[in-house]
Structures are given as C-alpha cells and as structure tokens.
Structures
1.
Amino acid sequence: SENIIEVKHLQTQFTRDDRKTVVLDNVSFHIKKGEVLGLVGESGCGKSVTSLSIMRLFKDTTGEITQGEIVYNGTNLLSMSENDMRQIRGKEISMIFQEPMTSLNPVMKIGEQLAEAIRLHLGYSDKLAREHAVSMLTKVGIPRPQEILAEYPHQLSGGMRQRIMIAMAMSCRPNLLIADEPTTALDVTIQAQILDVMKQLQADEHMSMLLITHDLGVVAEMCNRVVVMYAGRVVEEASVYDLFDEPKHPYTKGLIGSVPKIGQKRDRLDSVPGNVPTPNNMPKGCKFAPRCKEAMSICWEQEPAIAGVGENRFCRCWLYGEEGRGANA
Ligand code: SF4
Ligand code: MG
C-alpha cells in the first residue's frame, strides 16, 4: 500500500463514574508514505486522543477504543497483542509530546536514556549506541553533544530538552513520527528552529509524520495535507494548498481567518467565537451549529456526513448540498 497508516471509523470512549463518553466518533484518515499530515483543531477536539489511540496509550485505564481499525503497514494495530504493540512503539511509530519533562527520565543522564533507547530498538552495542546518540544530537543542532550526554534533563533549557526528545524519537528511524504540539511550550524563535530541524530530518529520512497542532502557521510550514477536527469528528480534509486557498467548512474558514506568521505570538485559535461543546453536552445535529454563522434549520436537526467536495477533498457540512446527504446520522 502507498499508505503507512489508515485510521478507519475509529471510535474511542472514556468511562468515568459509570458514564461513557464518546470522544472520537467515526474518525477516518490516512497518511501516505513520506507524507506530513497535519491534524488541527482547538484543544478538546480529539487530536491528542487520536494519537494516543494510534499508540494504544491512554494515560489512565478509562480510555477504550470501541470501534474501527488502525491499519499500519497492512496490519490492524487494534488486533495486536500488547507485546507485539510494544515492538511497534518507539521503533516503528515514535511519538514526541508537548512537554518533554514528562517523557524524559529525570534521574537518568541524557546519554544513558538516549543510548538505552537505541540499544533496545536497534540492537546496537554500547559503543555504537553512544556514537549514534552523538550523531543524533548533532543532527538536531545541539552544540557539544558529548557534554550534553553527561547532563540530567533538569540542567537543560526547554528548547534543549525538546531537541533531545526529537533526537530520541528519531534515533530509531521510525516509519511514522507522531508529534503532538511539539513546539507549543517553547518561545517563538526556538519554535521555528525546532520545526526546521524536524522538517530537515523528515525529508532526509523520507519519514511519514502526523503533526498535531492548533497552529495553522505550523501547518502551512510543515504539512502536505490537513485533517481538521471538531468535537471528536473529522470536519474537513484537504491538501494544505486547497485548505488555505479555499477552506470549505465554516469552522475551517474561521480558523484560516487570522493565521499569523510563524514566530508571531498569538492566542490559541481565538478567531472562532464560542467554545467546543463538551462530550456530554453535544448539539443534536451539526456539532458546530452553535458557533456557525451559516447554520440552517437542517443543521440543528441532523448531523451531516463527511462527503467528497472536490478532488481529494472532504467536508462535513450541509452547505455542500447533495454531497452532504450520504448522511450517516
Ligand atoms: Fe454550519 Fe450547518 Fe455546515 Fe454545520 S452543517 S458547519 S451548522 S452550515
Ligand atoms: Mg492535545
């Protein structure tokens, strides 16, 4: 297949106090080999849950995938044993999180952590693992890598720690890198540098990437294609060019409305007035209706299906007439 991963009709729910909440509803998308796919939307729209679902990693035990498939290189990850899944994580599919302090071990020197990951996944000897660690740190632009290897995470700046996370995630040459808001916690100059490093490494290794962000400036800079999520659903899918040239979904139009340049300080997606509905307080029809300037009566009654709206373009909106009406509602 030309796709490294295909997420098909994914449904994920959380259970708390016996109450089930569907947080991802019928989410489908694919990533081609060598492609960078952006996953965008406000916080709470299901982006991080999507990445945790792919990795089958939930912070607590209340998260559960109840429907769908995640086909990686032809195999459904959801039918794999936890043991086989452990072989996939880190080595085949790697992840970078927003806050590296939570994923670096505070009591282990950088060199030990990096070398351990490399030994574990690539089976290198100590000496080779160390050399590979040094070369990875050099690739992510860390000066004096030998010295950094002997330091602990708390001795380094946030930007340095994030570079180390990238080096660690990339050191096993994963086929797919999932980066969840990889630069959000960093100041703007560091942010741009880190994105440059990621872009370079991605191109060098012809790696596929799922880049999760709330920042459309980052998408424009980094991605080939974009999936826009809202309230646990995919609402639009398009190439980056088409999305910026002519956004179709009213939510996407709002997001595009005020895209800052990279490096410009801004608030989180503040261009769309109103808030994401909470899972337990979902509108009956289109989940965006309470914030949509273009809402019609049908929008309040029935949820539109995601449907083709042009070549390689998909949108979930009643504005697109008959195409919207293959309704799954
Ligand atoms: Fe707006 Fe209706 Fe389209 Fe929803 S379906 S985004 S409410 S026009
Ligand atoms: Mg998130």
2.
Amino acid sequence: MAAIPTTPLYMRRIGFDPDPGLAVLREEDGVRRVDSLLGGPAWLVTRIADVRQVLGDPVRFGNSRHHLVPGAPAMTEEELAAMLPGNLLGFDPPEHTRLRRLLMPEFTVRRMRRIEPRIHEIVNDHLDAIEREGPPAELVADFALPIPALVICELLGVPFEDRDDFQSRYTRFFDVSLSMAERYAVQAEAKAYLAELVARARVEPGDDLLGMLVRDESAGLDDRELVGIADLLLLAGHETTANMLGLGVLALLRHPDQLRLLRDEADRVDAAVEELLRWLTVVHTGVPRVTTAEVELGGHTLGPGELVVCSLPAANRDPRLVRDPDGLDITRDAGGHVAFGHGVHHCLGAPLARMEMRIAFPALLRRFPTLRAVEREPEYRAQQVVYGLASLPVTW
Ligand code: HEM
C-alpha cells in the first residue's frame, strides 16, 4: 500500500478531540502505512487492541533502535552515548528492567501516600495565593504548571527557583516545529544543568531521590545515568501532569454537569481522573516502537526494522474500549485506557500523577465554585508533543 501523507494526523486540532481523520483510519484499517514525522515511512496504529499488542510486546516492538529507522536523524556514537544513559524509554529489557527496578520503589502507591499531605499543602498554598490576588487568574501559570513542577522538584532534589529555565528548555525540547538537531541541543543544555546537580549530590547527598540514588552503591549508577534519570523524571514529571490539570479544568468548565458531579460528590474523583486521562490523552503525537523481527499486526505483515507509531488518542477513543467514546462521562469506568501507555514502559509516575490530579481538581472546584474561563478559545499547545493549554485565564 502506498504511503499516505498523514503527518498532521499525529497532531491534535484545536480543542479536545483528536483529528477526525484518525477515527476514519481506525475504522477503515487500524494499522496504516503513513509518513512519519521524521520523514520516513511508518505504521500508524489506531485501535486499542493493536496498540496494546505493540506496547505489550517489547521483544518484537523494541525501543532501543529508533536511531536506525529510515528518516531518523543520523547520530554519532557520541551523541547516542550522551543521550541514552538513564533514559528508560531508550532501552528494552533486560537493560530497561535494571533501571526500572531501581526507581520503582520510589513511585509505588504506598510511597506516594507518604507525600500526599505535602501535595495537599502545595495545592492549598497555590489556591490561597490565587484567592489573595483576586480575579482574574492565569490558571496555567498560577496552578497547573507550578504544582507538579514543585512536587517533582522536591521529590528529585532540584531547586524550584530554577524552574523558569528548565521549563522553557523543555517547552523547546517538546516543540515538534523545531528540527531534531535544535531539540537535541536543548537537551544537551538540560543535561549540563543536571550534571551540576548530580555533582553537588555526590558531595552532599540530600534526602531526595537523587541523594538516595547517589548513596545506594549497589545501584551502581554512573553520573551520566543519574543525569539521564533526573532529566527524564523532571521532564515527564511536570509537563504531562501540568497539561492534564490545565486542559482538564477547561474540559470540566465546558461540561458543567460533569463539573458539578465532581465538585459535589467526592467519591467520584478516581473515576473522573481516569475519564479525563482517557478523553484528553495529552501524550498525543504517537508513541513509537521499532520492529525487531517480522511480525503480524492488525492483518498486516511488518518486516524487521520498521517504525510503528501508536496513536494513544485514537486508541482511547476506540468504540471497542468504551461506549460513546467521544463523550466525556466521569461516571463511567474508563480504567482500560492507554493514556499512561501499556506494558513494560507503562508510566512510572502514574501513581504520582493520579494523586496530584485527585487532589488538585476537587480542591480548585470547591475553592472557586463559580470558576469560569475568561476567553472563549484559550491558546492550545498544538505543536507540542504533550498537548495542553499555553494559558487559561479564569475568573470567579
Ligand atoms: C512513561 C504518560 C506523568 C514519568 C510514560 C508513557 C506515557 C506517559 C504515555 C509511556 C511512553 C512509552 O511507552 O513510550 C504520562 C501522563 C502523565 C505522566 C499522561 C500525567 C498525567 C508522569 C510523571 C512522571 C512520569 C508525574 C514522573 C514522576 C514517566 C517515566 C516513563 C513514563 C519515567 C518511562 C517509563 C519506562 O520507560 O519504564 N508516561 N505520564 N510520568 N512516564 Fe509518564
């Protein structure tokens, strides 16, 4: 089948819904030959079952060979060596398993409960500040972004006062309108900054994740791995949750019946968070894997070394997952969604992200029962790997 130019379909249109073209592809043929964002060919996977097959099979759909697929920017051994260490997403088992096992204990639901009171405190401090300032407020800058950023900074041991610098770096890193070379250069800057923090932690390990990893000699992590881990956690730890918080608030404001249910009935919050994760699916540009052997997928035979891109928004709006998938319904069980991915790379920070959202959404809605958006159409982050809002002016 000829490749069709579907690059724009990786991207979200303005608003909450994925590009309608994705639904058409999903119904016609869940696995389609397309042009990837890198310029070479790829298989776009849009059905929930096929996405689970790909992400659930790290042996046939690997993560460590992205630099070898057609269209990928040529990287020198040095560039690869600088980029990979510590980055869980760049490895397959067993290398991946080693890193994941080291970090897992710090991200269990039980461990998250220990920091729950601190998250409440951080959320309340930000709500107090918004209330003190009075309306209007800028919900992304004053609430959605700083809360997860502060939480991950404290958890990791990164000075919060550096956040303007690292946030602007990560926004550039996630900007798909920039070239890969420009994005790698930004990543090198981020790593240089984190290398200083790791050096400091080696001398004086704090009571945080970096300090813990430095102290644990049996972990055997070298400095480049520590920098890579810190980079991934800092990036993944705040960009994603921040965008879920901002976009989630707007989604609720646009669905006042759902908002009322969540505000007035506290025990609905777990289901509401899962449904918002499913419906919004902020990791929207496609999760890539590379085939390691010939493999059958959705009725197609894929050769080895082919790029496969899973569209999480398409899979999460698959009618085979939930009934009426395009509707937002916080009373349903959306638990089978793939907004956090699936399989061995399933989001390490999911328990933390869930806890932040379960605390932040209801606290905001109860503090400001008359909250409303100031503008009809706020600014969306359409060019970003993680979808969301650039700003959300609100009043009450
Ligand atoms: C992996 C989404 C929050 C750390 C992933 C993946 C997705 C995802 C889709 C899988 C990518 C793949 O398979 O290629 C999200 C969403 C979040 C969120 C939607 C918020 C709502 C967080 C937080 C942290 C975090 C708060 C850290 C504290 C990670 C890490 C991985 C990952 C380290 C790689 C895991 C591995 O390779 O084993 N996330 N994430 N994420 N996420 Fe998250």
3.
Amino acid sequence: RRGPSTPYLEGLNPEQRLAVETTEGPVLVLAGAGTGKTRVLTTRIAHILATGRAYPSQILAVTFTNKAAREMKMRVGVLVGEAVEGMPWLGTFHSIGVKLLRRHSELAGLKSSFTILDTDDQIRLLKQLIQAEGLDDKRWPARQFAQMIDGWKNKGLAPGDIPEGDARAFANGKGRQLYAAYQARLKTLNAVDFGDLLLHPIRVFREYPDVLREYHAKFKYILVDEYQDTNTAQYMWLRLLAQRQAGSVNVCCVGDDDQSIYGWRGAEVDNILRFEKDFPGATVIRLERNYRSTAHILGAASHLIAHNEGRLGKTLFTEQSDPDDPKVKVHAAWDSEEEARGVGEEIEALQTKGHALNDMAILVRASFQMREFEDRFVTLGLNYRVIGGPRFYERQEIRDAMAYFRVVAQPADDLAFERIVNVPKRGLGEAAVRQIHDVARMRGVPLLQAARDLVGTEEMKPKPRAALRTLAESFERWQSQIDRVSHTELAEQILEESGYTDMWKNDRSAEAPGRLENLKELIRSMEEYESLRGFLEHVALVMDAERDEGLDAVSLMTLHSAKGLEFDTVFLPGWEEGLFPHQRALDEGGRTGLEEERRLAYVGLTRAKRNLHLWFTSNRRIHGLWQSTLPSRFLDELPEAHVDVAEDGGGYGGYGRSAGQPGRPNPYGRSRFDDTSFSNSYATPGWQRAQRNRTDATDRNWGTRSGHQAERIGYGETDSG
Ligand code: ATP
Ligand code: MG
C-alpha cells in the first residue's frame, strides 16, 4: 500500500518506517536520543502530504522552540518541495495558541487586537493590584506572585480551581482573589499573558463544543515533538484537540523520558507514560538504533543515565563504531580561565584540521559560565553565537550594572544615567526624569549634574527630590572612592548600596538566581583588569565585536536550549559538584532534582556526534570566594571503557597530574577524577576540606554513590594508593 513514489522513506529502518506509515490511529514513539524521533515526525509530515492524505493546513505540528519549528519546516520542504508552503499550524504551543486565540478572541471576552504582556508588564500590573488591596508589596512581592500564577496556569488552573493550600500561601489567603482580580484586569486591558495563550483556547474548546468540533474536522493529523516536556495545560489542550468521539485519532507524539528537563517549569513526564491510557489502541514504537553518535559517546551517555531510578529504561545501540573513533575526553583545568583557554585551543586545533566552527558547540549548565568563553573568543577572534539568549554583556542585569559603573567613571554618560536613574524603582518616574532633562538642556550640563542642581531647589516634589538627592550623593561618594578602594570592591559596593543587588534578591522569578550569578560573574571578571576604566574599555570592545549570523561560528548555549540539536564536536565545561549537578538540586536533597540534573547531563552528552570533551576545574569562585571544587559525581558515573582522561596540557600539565607518578600506575584513584587534578602539589588541603564537608553533610546520595561506585568499578577506598 505504499505510495507510488516515496523516496523519502528510503534509508529509514523498519521501526521508523512503521512510525511514518502508521498514519491512522494514535502512535507513540518512545525512544532515546538520536534515534530519529524528529526525523520520523518530519518524514511523517512529508508522507502525509505526498500521499494526499491531508492538505498542509490540516496538519497540526507542535515543536518545543521556534527554532525547531523553522527547522522542521525546512526539513519537510527538502522532502516534499513546495507542498510545505502554507503549513500554518506548525509551531510552538504558544505560537499556535496565539493563532487560535486571534480567531476566537470574542469567545474569550477579548478583541482580536489583544496584546500579549511581557513579564515586566505583568509584574507592574500585579504590583498595582497588590497595593490596591492595601497589602505591603515588599512583604508580598509581585514577582513572587507572578511566579505562582504561572505555576497555576501551567497546571491549567483558573482562579476558581486553585487548591485551598496554594490559595492561602500568598497574602494571608488573598491569593485566589488577587488572581481573579488580575484576570479581570487583563480582560479590561484587552491583554493576555503567556499562560493565557493556552488557557483561553482550552476554555473556549470546553465551553463551545461547536468550535472544538470545527477543529476536530480540520486537523486530520496531529504531531508533537519532545512530548516528555509538556506541562499539564499543554496536555489538556492537546487532549481536547486529539480526543474525539468518532473517527480515528491520528495523533503521533514522540519523546524520551530520559530527556525530560523542564520539571522545574511544570513539565509532567507522566504525560508520556499515560499515553496508552489516554489513547486506547495506541501503537507504541520503540527506536533503538542511534544514528547520531559514536559507540563511545553513546556508551558514556547510556551508562550515566542508568544511574537514575525513575525511568522506563531502553536499549540503544549504534552501528557506528570505528576503532579510530575518539573516546570521550575528560579535561581538568585549574580554574575557569584555564578551562576557557583549553577549549579555545582545542577549537583552533580542530579548525586548523578543517573542521567548521558551525559544527562545534559549548553547552553550559548556568548562563554565567558563558562570560569566560565569550571573552576568550573575542581575544582569539573566533566567531561565536549565543543561542537562546543574549550575549553575556548584553543581558539586562549586566547592562544595568555597567550603567552604574559608567556613570561613576564618566559622569557625563547620560545614556547610562538614564538607564538606571529609576532602577531599582526609587520613585523617579517620568515626570521627574523630564525635569532633570529640562534642567540639563537649559544649562547645557550632563544629567547627573542637572540632578545635583535640581535637589538644591524647590522645583521638584519632596519625594522624588529626596530620592534624587540620595542618588546624587551616592554617585559622589562612589566617585570619591575610585582611587581609594580596588575597583572590584567599589563595584560590589555600588551594586549593594544602590539597592540593585537587593532588587534581584527580592525577586521571586525563575530567572532571578541566574541574574544574581551573572552579577557575581561580572565582578569576578573585573579582577582581570587593572582599573574600572580598563574594564569598561574591554567591554566596549567586546560589545563592538563583529557578529554576522551567517558566518561560520561556534555555538554557545545552555544545556536546556540544546535540546533536539546535534553537533560534530561538543564541549561540556563546568562538571563540578555544586555547578553540575547544580547546588539547588543538591540542596533539595531528594532524588527528583538530582535525577533531573542527570537527565540534563544525558541531553548534553547525546548532542555530540563524534567528539565530546568534558571539563572540570579545581577552583571556582562562588559567591565571591575562591573554592576548591570537586569533580562532578556524573564524571564518576561514566564508564571507563569509553572515557579518556586528557593528557594534553590544560590543567594536568601544569598541576602535577597523578598519572606517570611513581607508584601510581593507575590514574584512577578512589574516585577517578577526585584525585587526578588535586594531587600533591597544589590543592590537596582544599580538596581535603571539601571532601570533609561532603562527608559531614551525611548526604545520602554521596553515601550510596561511593558504595555503588566502588562495587561497580571493582575497587574501594582501601584499594587506592
Ligand atoms: P533527540 O532525542 O536528541 O531529539 P531524535 O530522536 O529526535 O534525537 P533525530 O534528530 O531525528 O533524533 O536524528 C538524529 C540524527 O540521526 C539526525 O542527524 C538524523 O538525520 C539521523 N538519522 C535518523 N534516522 C536515520 C536513518 N534512518 N538513517 C540515517 N540517518 C538517520
Ligand atoms: Mg528530536
């Protein structure tokens, strides 16, 4: 029953082919990384179109990011040519949600011209509502509440649905009422937030069965990629569209429970496990052949993920195993600067051998790690692009902090002054700023000078005047300090005294901790310069660096945004306890957080096709203090057979690596990586200290882990040395 001309089916393995050709009825493809799940979805779309089963407008295809959507459109285009034109329903949950809502806005009580609020708007609005309730918005921060509302919306909960306990958790039990007031206010403003893009369509589908039936008739085929990361609201939305009374439900979801990495944002991996119940008679297809990576990479990744308990478990194999394939390389560095230098050298070496920069990626656990690499690449003149977010120095918190520093170093920098005059909020609204501008223009002086002049007059209202006086005096104080304290100390002082750090500390949003980390990294990076001015010059140059998106460039991104992507060469820096696994997951104590970190590690490892480099440093500056760091437990969880400890310069050359030392033929000590970087000459005391802390913490994970480790590798603590 194959179509007359189906060249796109060629090369698929039998299971993939089954997944493509089982067009009717529910299909779940549950398979590990690199087994061709996304390829199956793309080919399936091509097949449906090529065999005339549906028009492009009758296919609903959901991807996780806009980038993935564009890529899928392109890949289908390659397979079927122009037929892909006008696939209007291929996109993310949000982009499809907007489209649905524009069509049915009146049923949701909106005009079709509704606006979509960003987080800032949302928070401003919530703050007004909190204050209108007579509540102290310092005690009950709007950002925290915004976060709670997002959580409820991810679970598909309207104000009336939220559980009693949750409702009590905010503002002495006013949570529900405030949430309802917020929704009402959005309606008057003819606005929606991101969560509404799913919730409104869900409500419309429920309340207007005719509308839902219209879509049942319209969407003949539904496809979803990365199904393991759908949250409850997305799942409800999908089920409404996919579960119909009569006729077949042609829904195909693909995913991998081992790659569920958005639990912290409300994703429910259970959705994938429930599929067969939700869609009785579903065909479940498992793909086991990995086409992406070498046997070494796959071996390392499979071995690592096997340490998770809560998983379905699956087989993965590859036929790509050439004796010449490089093993996974683990490198040690003294600190993050050396790490960046080592990665840079490796990249240049590959480039010399003819590898394209486009085929290389650096995937970090936390975005503050990017700074060191970006600086290094600028120095080397290596082209790079940051995916899924701004470059380090372009981030909001970095720009804000830099603006303070610029005004201190260069009081006539009006742009910088304007940026922070009311950040954090200090009651200097538009009117006050206009007044400052007027004075500046009249007298031909910089804004800061105008501000100083203004506070000496009666022209301004008392409140803003007091605020402006404090600010002007602060700048005077900071300027007077320039030659007295070190520039890093001054920078810290500025961020503290201006209230800027506190602003983010009081911020309950998911991004706030990352922003604080970035600020610390900013201060850290200043140490490498002699003076504040020298540092500012450096940043100006970095900001000005050539960037041409079309050029060959190394990709730099977080592990979270690397989902679904693949590169020839992948660098994974920062494999240290406290960074990866992240301290927040360790602090939680339980299994959940740690297992999600391990899945993230699995996602990272499986992005590589051929060359995979892991790095850890012996020292990292955390919270302003240098600390000896321990290699990540995930390094210990890699199988020896597929891993090489790099001998190439880097941290080892200079820091007394244990291999090659007399009496230590086995480079793997008690824990193979704990010892190698810390041996003898340098950080032994630090390492011992860290080791003690770790044992003192009576961390269950650590306990079971070392036992497990000793058993698995076949030597215990007593064997080493
Ligand atoms: P992830 O879980 O990381 O999202 P995936 O399961 O979606 O991975 P794909 O990205 O679809 O995997 O495929 C991985 C790589 O293997 C791609 O480069 C793809 O083109 C290739 N591939 C998949 N199936 C085949 C096949 N039958 N023959 C040759 N190459 C294939
Ligand atoms: Mg994929």
4.
Amino acid sequence: MTFNLITTARAVPDQIITNSDLAKIMPTSDEWIKQRTGIERRHLASTETTESLCIDVAQQLVQANSIGPKQIDLIVVATMSPTYSMPSVAATVQGAIGAENAATLDVNAACTGFVYAMAVAHDMAVAKGYQNVIVIGGEVMSKYVNWQDRSTAVLFGDGAAGVLLALNEDGQDHYLGDAFKTFGEKGRSLMADFRPNNSPFAKPVEADSYLTMDGHQIYNFVIKKAPVVIEEVLQKTGLTLPDIDWVVFHQANARIIQQLSKKLGLTAQQCPINIDEYGNVAAASEPLVLNDLVASDQLKPGDKVLLCGFGGGLTIGASIFDY
Ligand code: ACO
C-alpha cells in the first residue's frame, strides 16, 4: 500500500494585522516583535471561524482533484480552538462538503496537533484500507488571546491548511515513521481556555481563561527536547538529516527554528520559515508551510519531509514522509 500526499490547500482570514497595527493598541513595536519572533503580520479572524476556514480548505482539496466528496473516507482536523467542542470541526466539514462516507474526528495536541493528525490518518487509513483522506490543521487563536497581554498577543495568528492523502496499491508506504513525547508535568507552562464549571452543584473556581505562557520555559524546553525526538524518528526510519530535503518545524518563533537548525546542523534552505506572514497558528502552522512549498513548486516528487511540532502539553512530535 502506498500513502501519498496528493495536494494541499489553505484558507486564511482576509484581515491582515501588521506589527504596527498592534503597536497602536498596546505598548509594543514592529522592531521588538520582528527581532524576538520574526513575525511581521498575521491574519486575524473578523467573521471567519475555525469551522469556516477548515470547510474552505476541504472544498479546495476536493475541487482540485478528480475525486468527489463521496470518495473521501476520513477527515481529521487538528485544532486546539474548535468552534464548538461538539460537534467536532471534522464532522461539520464532512457535512458541509457532502463527504457522506467519511469518518471524522478532531485531534487536539496543541501545536503538535498536525503531526499527530497525520499519524492518526495514516494509521487508520492503513488499518482500514481507506483510499482518500483529508487532514487539516485549523485555528482561530485570536479568541484565546488576552489582548491586554503584549507578551502573548503579538505571537498568534488564525488560519487553516490541509492535505489530501491517498492510499493506493503500489507497494510502498510513503509515510516513513514517527515519534512522540509528552512532558505532562510541564503542561501548566502553556494553557488556554479554562472553562469554569457553573453547575449549581460545583464549587466556583477563579481562573484565567485566556492563553498564558511561560515563554522562556517553552523556548528552552523546545531547544533541548525537539532534537531528541527528531533523533528518535531518524533512528526508526534508518535515515540521517542529510537525507531530509525539508524540515518543517512548527512556526512558534523564527529564533527557535534558527537555533534548532544550528544545533542539528541543518541549512536555512532545509528549514522554511513563514512565521513572518502568519504568526504562530498552532496546528495550522505546519500545513501552511507545506502548502507554501507545494504552491511555489519547491517540493518535488520524492523529496523527504520531516515534520516537527512542539507546544502545549507539553508535547513534541516528529514524522517523516516522502512526497
Ligand atoms: N513588545 C515589547 N516588549 C515586550 C513584549 C512586546 N510584545 N512582550 C514582552 N516584552 C518585554 C518584556 O516585558 C521584557 O521587558 P523587561 O526586560 O523590561 O522585563 C522584555 O520584553 C523581554 O521579554 P522576554 O519574555 O524575556 O522576551 P523573550 O526574548 O524571551 O521573547 C518570546 C519572548 C518571544 C515569547 C519567547 O520567549 C518565545 O518565543 N518563547 C517560546 C514560545 C513558544 O514556543 N510557544 C510554544 C508554542 S505555542 C502553543 O503551543 C500554543
């Protein structure tokens, strides 16, 4: 069985907010944000929702190919900011595009979500013989952000991107392997969307529902632990970093990516960065990079791609596939 990435698509909110726009509403500057993060602008939802962005991506994926929606067997959406907890974003996408034969689920592993979603999609497809699978990362992070907190408000963006995968009988699995690690004891260093229990039977609890982050702790954690998980997936697949054409890191901060590249001995060419355009879009950030690579014809058939996501949980995941 072969598992192929057939095509990609993206949908981002029309509204673009630059660093200078943010500087008008909080004590920050274009210089600080660019220097510390690499971000220049981000797309922020005005009317768009995680659902609407993901539906847009799924419609493009189906329309760009000769398959009809009824031929989609599985839709997996990676998101930490679903429009509703129920129904799942994936179920709403399924209904909207008329993919009446598709199984659906959302995966929440924060910024590692897309790596997990690809693994879930691959393993379910192989186990069940699914032919056509859609995997989307979609987020509206702006609804979780405390717009009074400059230390986090400048970092995040909204958007969605996804891939169409197909499983065909040609004898080779193009999904080569994955590795995941969770450090749950550090989970409170990155939190969002606490919802108090307002039941008349529950004790009231005071807590911040906005996104909170210990930026330093996350930064150091990623620099230390991401290479360990990358090493594990390389060992599992029998590959080395020079075999890898593209390392698609979660776009949390350009400095993190540059430091990881240096530590691992990767070239800038191997590690595309698009955080300047989108900010940190959590589970959508890696498919947005994949979409940029496909849309600009940089990703060539046979290229080996290593995905590495990291963030809330704290979690880290890495996987390798060839295009
Ligand atoms: N504009 C101007 N000044 C600011 C801003 C801002 N937006 N935010 C903070 N500052 C100030 C601080 O108050 C501080 O001032 P002080 O020195 O007077 O106290 C100074 O800038 C330096 O702040 P630091 O927090 O030390 O800045 P740092 O260089 O660490 O950068 C950052 C902060 C960008 C958040 C960095 O720590 C980072 O990227 N961390 C990792 C984030 C990450 O990877 N998150 C995981 C993914 S998210 C997910 O999973 C959902």
